Amino acid sequence: MQGLQMVDLKRQYEKIKSEVDEAVLRVIASTAFINGPDVNAFAHELASYLGVKHVIPCANGTDALQIALMALDLKPGDEVITPSFTYIATVEVVALLGLKPVFVDVSADNFTMNIDSVRAAITPRTRAIIPVHLYGQSADMEPLLKLAAEHNLPLIEDNAQAIGSDYTFSDGRKLKTGAMGLIGCTSFFPSKNLGCYGDGGAMFTNDDVLAEKLRMIANHGQKQRYYHEIVGCNSRLDSIQAAILRIKLRHLDAYCDARRAAADYYDAAFAGNEHIITPFRAANSRHVFHQYTLKLQGVDRDEVVRALGERHVPAMLYYPVSSHKQNMLRDFVTDEIELPVTDMLNTCVLSLPMHTELSQEELHYISNSLLEVLAKLQTATA
Ligand SMILES: *Cc1c(COP(=O)(O)O)cnc(C)c1O
Asked: Which ligand 1 atom sits closest to the C-alpha of 134?
């Protein structure tokens, strides 16, 4: 089978082409390229979808994280707790702002921040915690929120991979990921679950004062034009992207369902295979499968990736090198740092094609290919 991709945006576009083309042409004809009515309309529609008071759009997910941290008025050297097992942007912004990233380990099942590791990392200099809802599943937020509240620490959720997911608290309350901490951040990078056709991002909060501050920081620190109160940056979601996102937001739940259905197929195909640990699904969180990431055991992962490649099945390693092993962040790593689960995951995770348009035929081919590859490698080593 030819043409398999990790993410197939073309087929998704074809299904909404007439709507998208009309919207893009409408924005162009209006020439309201920056801060046009679609930006505000999208922010309101997303706020209502997420159940938050404020959505502040910005230029990308990395900016969202950076602006969120800027709004906390931290001082150089203040500590921010983050997982090491994440996309680099989560940690990079902490270092960029002169703050100190403090790495914590993740849980081996759900790949998100481990509560005991967080508890052990809190010091008198800790100022914020950034849980990452990795691959489309919520971090275990209830104990995290409780711990953060005990220490009076804000949580900034990195929701770039999990928009549309939710989390159920022990009292039955259900909240969307990104709507539980002080600030939620997301990315509309094209391949994300809610992706635009370029770059985009947003911050969410229920705090009126903070919302205004985030808005100011994203706009050169001004509330009133040419009166700059605080140092900010220039970070905007453009109107064409907002118009596209308004359309895609209406499909987001269906997109998440399509991803979950593909994951169900993979799970069933791999059930019982001794080399594959299929993704864990927490009972209190709806996994929206930004990635379908399994763990391999008892087999050489490089060989598996190579053999899949021969069958034209793409497979990716998210992430082969964790943040605390990146040269960029070497100043923040001490000899004592031990992240055994993170180190273990680097060696065994494997992500298969995952998007909204996977056909039964493709799912069959991909899962069968992996099973065949594993059987072959096993007989070769037996
Ligand atoms: C994609 C992503 C980001 C960054 O988003 P950009 O829009 O590419 O800047 C941050 N954190 C995580 C976990 C991501 O997956």
From this structure: 13
- Identity (one letter) of the amino acid at 215? R
Kindly give the distance from the C-alpha atom of residue 379 to the centroid of ligand 1, in angstroms, as a whole number: 40
Residues near ligand 1 (Cβ within 6 A): 60-62, 86-87, 89-90, 132, 158, 160-161, 187, 189, 199, 201
Residue 364's identity, in one-letter code, is H
Average pLDDT over residues 317-345: 94
3-state helix, strand, coil in the chain (%, to 5): 45, 15, 40
CA of 89 to the centre of ligand 1 (A): 6
3 state SS of 240: helix
Residue to probe by mutation, ligand 1, list 86, 189, 192, most atoms within 8 Å of CB = 189
Kindly list the structural domains of the chain, giving each domain's residue range(s) and its CATH number in brackets, ordered by start.
Answer: 9-246 (3.40.640.10), 252-381 (3.90.1150.10)
How far apart CA 304 and CA 171 sit, in angstroms, is 44
CA distances (Å), 314 to each of 14, 61, 253, 269, in order? Answer: 22, 25, 26, 18
Q: Whose CA is nearest to atom 5 of ligand 1?
A: 61
Opening angle at CA 187, ends 184 and 191, nearest 5:
140
Q: Retrieve residue 344's tokens.
A: 């273990």
Ligand 1 centre to CA of 45 (Å) is 22
Rounded to whole angstroms, the Cα distance separating 58 from 310 reads: 41
CB atoms within 10 A of CB 327: 7
Ligand 1 closest atom vs CA 65: 10
Q: For residue 338, is pLDDT > 80? A: yes
Provide the pLDDT for residue 336.
87
- pLDDT digits 0-9 by tens, 307-326: 999 999 999 999 999 999 99
What's the pLDDT at 247? 98
